[in-house]
Design brief:
The structure holds 2 protein chains of 2 kinds.
Chain A: H1 5-16, H2 20-42, H3 45-62, H4 72-93, H5 112-118, H6 123-133, H7 139-146, H8 150-168
Helix pairs in contact in A: 1-2, 2-3, 2-4, 2-6, 3-4, 4-6, 6-8, 7-8
Chain B: H1 9-26, H2 32-54, H3 58-69, E1 71-75, E2 86-91, E3 94-98, E4 104-108, E5 112-115, E6 122-126, E7 129-133, E8 139-144, E9 148-155, E10 160-166, E11 169-174, E12 181-185, E13 192-193, E14 200-205, E15 208-213, E16 219-223, E17 231-234, E18 241-244, E19 249-252, E20 258-262, E21 268-275, E22 282-288, E23 291-296, E24 302-307, E25 312-315, E26 321-326, E27 331-336, E28 343-347, H4 349-353, E29 358-363
Parallel strand pairs in B: 1-28
Antiparallel strand pairs in B: 2-3, 2-29, 3-4, 5-6, 6-7, 7-8, 9-10, 10-11, 11-12, 13-14, 14-15, 15-16, 17-18, 18-19, 19-20, 21-22, 22-23, 23-24, 25-26, 26-27, 27-28
Classes of the chains: A mainly alpha, B alpha+beta.
Chain lengths: ~170, ~375
């Protein structure tokens, strides 16, 4: 999991100064949540890896200008989720023949049904559910992250959960 | 969901770390003095300029600072442009042309203005008119329309089209003012013609960016989003489309693939972004705290930095000079790109145009 706020600020500060080990600590702390969030929205392991990796590359490019008073995670997650939504939408418009996920058997069984049903939601609904229940942002924070009105976030959460419930029943 | 483990998380992390580490190690961490020296001096310039207004002796400080950073000829008036071409600007009091020698001509009380492809004419808008003018401000034709905005002119010397928005609709009219037709619904974002042959235009409809061939009506690209872009811009070769948003700028290729992007951190946002002419490089203005900086998308390198708000980036036609508009300093700053660093400033911009202007384009002349 991500380090404490103090750890994180120190990692960012030292990474800005050129410390590879501190940048690696930042990467290790945030790779898992970023990759999982991307995966849950796009449901394609290769795409999720590309999206999370691209978010970290964006972090490298912006490192010198990053405001250390702000937490790193929300900024990274905003990039990841927005890119994942873009990717999922593009795939909807240009469907591929078959999305084969070679690593799928490793998926934990207890989440199987829920994850399958998550596929039935739109990328936008998936994104808010991932942000709320995987990354544990509050609806207000999600609204800020995705630049959406708070009411839109609440309604997407409500509709997304209702649809999941219907499907699971 | 908290217990969820995505497939191959560990392996993917190792693969990604190799790539990300290589990018981190290849970045050029700029030593503090160098990273901050020029920006600080640029910021100091503004502070010094304020001091100069408040106390006449401060003027010597301004001069010495300008000399120290190579800001030559930091004039109180705009005497000439550092590169060929002419600027078309829209100010609260109307549209103006600024010639290369610095001479200015007010075209009239127009809201928006755009050059024709070779800079021979200007399309401009009033409250209820789209008009075509020559560079002296003589009217060639008018087209009565309610609330026309954002004219954009394209074509060859023999056949041109003007796109504009009116009451939430994208229209296209011939360069002679004939053949006006409705193309689609559109949001209040300036439409942009794709450079090159044909009549292909990018525009926003709601939060969706569309690229459409206005001759055949075919939609060539459709990119959805949660919020509409603030600005659209094509690269000079028409291969890439920049969709600028303060918190999420994207560059798309012809198939809609994102080839570059910028997602500012929480405390910051972008104010403008633009392609360097003749290249696929993008420079952007980032606002952070009380300052702004101009940086390159590709490597994050800072090109210019200062205190206050930078509003716009406008490139000279040859791509060698960048105009940074700096309303809080009431200045225009011309920065030479590549080669020896060279900066030319012009102050008291509002006084010269009757209010701080927006630059529509820097046109025609390489």
């Amino acid at each position: 999991m991500a380090g404490s706020g103090r750890d994180e600020r120190a990692w960012v500060r030292r990474a800005q100064a050129g410390s590879v080990s501190d940048f690696e600590a930042l990467f290790r702390a945030h790779w898992g949540p970023a990759y999982r969030a991307a995966y849950l929205v796009v449901r394609d392991a290769s795409a999720a890896e590309d999206i999370a990796q691209e978010a970290f590359l964006a972090a490298v490019r912006s490192l010198d200008r990053f405001d250390r008073r702000r937490p790193f995670g929300p900024w990274l997650h905003r990039i990841v989720v927005n890119r994942a939504i873009d990717w999922a939408r593009a795939r909807t418009l240009r469907p591929e023949a078959e999305a084969v996920d070679a690593a799928a058997p490793e998926r934990p069984e207890h989440d199987e049904e829920l994850l399958r049903e998550l596929d039935g939601l739109s990328p936008e609904h998936r994104a808010v559910i991932v942000l709320r229940y995987l990354l544990e942002y509050t609806p207000g924070e999600i609204a800020e992250l995705l630049e959406l009105p708070r009411g839109t976030v609440n309604s997407r959460l409500r509709r997304g959960l209702d649809r999941l419930k219907e499907r699971l029943e | 969901m908290k217990r969820f483990g995505a497939p191959s998380e560990q392996e993917s992390g190792e693969r990604a770390w190799e790539v990300v580490r290589a990018a981190y190690e290849s970045r050029e961490p700029i030593a503090w003095p160098r990273r901050h020296a020029r920006p600080l001096v640029a910021g100091a310039l503004v502070a010094a300029a304020v001091a100069a207004v408040l106390s006449p002796p401060g003027r010597s400080v301004v001069r010495s600072l300008r000399k120290a950073v190579g800001v030559e000829n930091a004039r109180t008036e705009l005497f000439s442009l550092p590169a060929r071409g002419r600027l078309l600007v829209s100010a609260p009091g109307g549209a103006w042309i600024v010639n290369a020698d610095g001479s200015r001509r007010r075209l009239g009380a127009y809201r928006d203005a755009a050059f024709s492809p070779h800079g021979l004419f200007i399309a401009a808008t009033k409250a209820n008119e789209l008009v075509a003018l020559d560079p002296k401000g003589n009217m060639r034709w008018t087209l009565p329309r309610r609330s026309p905005r954002f004219p954009a002119w394209t074509g060859s010397r023999t056949d041109t089209r003007i796109a504009y928005l009116a009451r939430g609709r994208l229209h296209v009219v011939g360069g002679d003012g004939n053949g006006d037709r409705l193309v689609d619904r559109a949001s209040a974002v300036a439409p942009v013609w794709r450079p090159g042959p044909g009549y292909v235009i990018a525009y926003a409809r709601g939060a969706t960016t569309l690229v459409r061939d206005v001759v055949t009506g075919a939609v060539l690209l459709r990119e959805g989003s949660d919020i509409p872009p603030r600005k659209l811009e094509w690269s000079s070769d028409g291969k890439l489309l920049l969709s600028f948003k303060p918190y999420a700028t994207r560059v798309y290729d012809a198939r809609g693939k994102v080839v570059a992007q910028d997602d500012p951190s929480d405390a910051t946002f972008d104010r403008d972004a633009a392609f360097v002419p003749g290249t696929h490089r993008v420079l952007a203005v980032r606002a952070a705290g009380g300052g702004s900086d101009v940086f390159a998308f590709l490597d994050g390198r800072t090109v210019f930095k200062g205190t206050g708000v930078f509003r716009q980036l406008v490139f000279s036609p040859n791509g060698r000079w960048l105009l940074v508009t700096w309303p809080t300093a009431n200045q225009w700053v011309f920065v030479r790109l590549g080669g020896a660093r060279h900066i030319v400033g012009a102050s008291r911009i509002s006084a010269q145009f009757g209010g701080y202007p927006r630059v529509a384009s820097w046109c025609c002349g390489r």
